[in-house]
Amino acid sequence: MDDALIDSFINYLRATKTKSENTIKAYAEDLLQFLEYLKQKKLSEPVLTNINHLHIRGFLAHLNEKKLSKRTVARKLSTLRSFYKYITVEGLIKQNIAKAVHAPKTSKRLPLFLYPQEIEALLSAPNNDVLGIRDRAIMELLYATGMRVGELVLLKTSDINFGANYIIVFGKGSKERVVFFGQKAAECLEEYLRKSRPYLIKNIECDSLFLNKNGTALSDRSVRRIIDKYVKIEALNCDISPHTLRHTFATHMLNNGADLKSVQELLGHSSLSTTQIYTHVTKDRLKEVYDKTFPHN
What we know:
Radius of gyration: 23 Å
Number of domains: 2
CATH topology of the largest domain: hpI Integrase, Chain A
Oligomer: single chain
Distance between the termini: 72 Å
Structural class: mainly alpha
Order of helices and strands: HHHHHHHEEEHHHHHH
Helix content: 55-70%
Number of helices: 13
Strand order of the largest sheet: 1-2-3
Number of strands: 3
């Protein structure tokens, strides 16, 4: 019964397409972890519908004892709130018991980003062979558009509009948006399509834009390994991931005068508050503003 409840919730999320597949997988893992915790309490089945908010508090305390970060604990509570909201709407319980539990306060971390000289070094690292040309096109496109790695690996060759230098991508919750890319990214993409992709493709009917050495679509994990490879070559911060290029895109756009609303649209954020984490500015930019605007200088 408990497993069936979880499966029903996960199927609901997939059907409504309000969450990405990675988020859905995380929800499933969180709920199974919570279920295992409850089973140790020897509650009557189905345990998921025979608990109160104190059991959820106990679960969060259990996570804290395991030294999980506040951010992770807050995310797991968010999963439980969504799950209990669902089974409340389904009429299986009278009220969402998870709403009575407060999330731990988390400090907002500044997103990790690359300085212009660092991103230039990273983009220049690949060789000019078949895989190197592909890898450069991947990194150029991630940086030029600010798209998520999950969006990048779903791109088809027909999604690229070279005439106007834009791509229509489908983000979280299958939301459609337009992202743009500049001349450098366009040249790298054209070189990849001309010199690299024809050597990688095995099935002519495959329309995925970025392919692995076996001729099939790259996975997001493969893209992470590609980024890791060049980060090590350039001896950059070891915490750099594909998402760092998204952070870098947003930071550089704002540092160079883009307005917050436009960056929100380009990133595909549903809330402006999510985009506001990028309003940090670099010391170089602060110094530049100071030198230009302070009158007694």
